[in-house]
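Supplementary Methods. Inverse-folding protocol.

Structures were first reduced to a discrete structure-token string of length 62. This string, shown here, constituted the complete conditioning input.
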């Protein structure tokens, strides 16, 4: 797993905590920020995974 993938997973977890905290406190701004962090994390994770797969393909690894 690449650094970008780990960073993406971290952002997703952080975003989920923010979203749930926003729901619990009825803070729509925090809830939205958490959802945005989760999306950003998914994108980072996907880019990291794609980069890793391309690198593995070019180097002949599986």
């Amino acid at each position: 797993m690449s650094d970008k993938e780990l960073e993406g997973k971290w952002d997703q977890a952080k975003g989920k905590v923010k979203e749930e905290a926003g729901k619990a406190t009825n803070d729509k701004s925090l809830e939205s920020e958490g959802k945005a962090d989760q999306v950003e994390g998914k994108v980072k994770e996907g880019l990291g995974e794609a980069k890793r797969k391309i690198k593995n393909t070019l180097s002949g690894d599986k």
